[in-house]
Amino acid sequence: MPRCYDPRRMSSAPARPLSILLRLVRGAAWTGMLALLAISGAGLLGQTFHAPGSPARAELTWDGDAAISARLDVAAQQLQAIAADITKLATDAKTALSEVASTDASRLRAALEDGGAVATRIDDQTKALRTSLVGLPGDGPTAAIEYSNATLVRRAAILAAVDAAAGVASQWRSVTGRAVDAAEVTSLISHHDQTVVAATQLGVAGKYAATLPLLAEALDTVDQIQDLRARLISSPDRTVLDEWIDRDRAYDIALETLYKALVKSKGKITLEVQAARRDEQIAFNNLPPDRRTIIVIVSEVARGGLTQAVLAIEDAHGRIDDALNGVTGGSTEAGAAG
Hints:
338 residues; 0% strand
């Protein structure tokens, strides 16, 4: 049967693709709008949410910052006083360094004694400061929430400065004893030589008996130098100072033996006197040619220790300055945040 023309069917054909297209456009529009709302919401949330320890949420850490800042302020003032004493200690150390080679040990001792008093004061102040900081809050697992970052940085800087100051006094005491021993060795060497010269002058004048107490004193001085050598030089290796001790002791004993023989012979040249004289000459020829070389070597030993002390004190001073600068910066930031 032939198909009849139906105008309704012909008009609905192009309408169906058009409705599909409109639905796709509306879906895309809604998707875009939802995406835009999601992005806007995320931005709004980012602007309204801040971590408790950040400057934008200073009100959440204000109580904690205020509680700890008072103790940190007091600690910073105490550190300033300690830093001033460390500056003075560095000056005393440099003075001692310049005087260690002098045969007059009085100025060296004065610098060391003054520095010792300053070191003791630093030690006492540091211990008191550490005691005052016992229980200082800010190191718990929730510290980042309870305190601002500036306050925590300031706290760490102060504790670092205290640690730097704590080692200064012990460093000073560890080297000053060595410097004192070196100065004492230098002084004893000079005293020994003067005593032996005085004894020989009496011997030339024929006062043989009067030389014996002086030579006994000279030998006792050598023994003192031997004891100081053990404290001053830790190495068991033989040194120039050991050579001086052995050779001068041998000469003192030979000279003492000669004068005892002369006392016994009442000044007459006997075989015993002649033998003692030969031994004295041999011992004399074995004496070190120049005492100044030994004094310089001993002084260098002490100077090495003092140089290390100066460097350590300067390093500690620099670390305290850095810490105090951090304290000042942290305090300012915390105050601005509060």
